[in-house]
Amino acid sequence: MKKLSILAISAFLFAVSCKESKTDSATTSTEQAVAENKGETFTVNADSSTVNWTASHKGGLNPRFGTTKTTGTLSVENGNLTSGSLTSDINSLTTDPKSVDPAATEGKTSADLDTHLKSADFFDTAKYPTVKFEITKVADLAAGTESKTDGANKTVSGNLTIKDKTVNVTFPAKVEVTGNEVKMWSKFTINRQDWGLAYGTDGDAKDWMISKDVDLELNIVANK
Question: Which of 66, 159, 165, 196 yields a CA-CA distance of 20 to 30 A from 118?
Answer without folding.
Answer: 159
